Amino acid sequence: MHALLLENAAYVIGERIYRDASVYIEDGRICWFGTGDVPAGTERISARKCAVLPALTNAHTHLPETVLRGLCDDRVLMDWLNKYIWPAENKLTNEFAEWAALLGCAELIHNGVGFFIDQYFYANEIARSVLKAGIKALLCPSVFDGCPEGKTIERQFAIAEKFIREWHGKSTRLYVGIGPHAPYTVNDEYLARINEIATSKNLHVHIHLSETQHENADSQKKFGMSPARRLSKLGMLNKRALLAHCVHLSEEDIALIAGAGATVLHCPQSNLKLSSGIAQIERIRKRVNVLVGTDGNASNNNLDVLEELRTACMLQKYLFGAEAMPLQDAFSMISSNAAALGCNYTGIIKPGAPADIAVMPLEKPHLQPVHDILSNLIYSANGTDVSTLIIDGEIIMQDYRILRFDEGEVLEKCREIAQAIWNQ
Question: Structure pTM?
Answer without folding.
Answer: 0.96
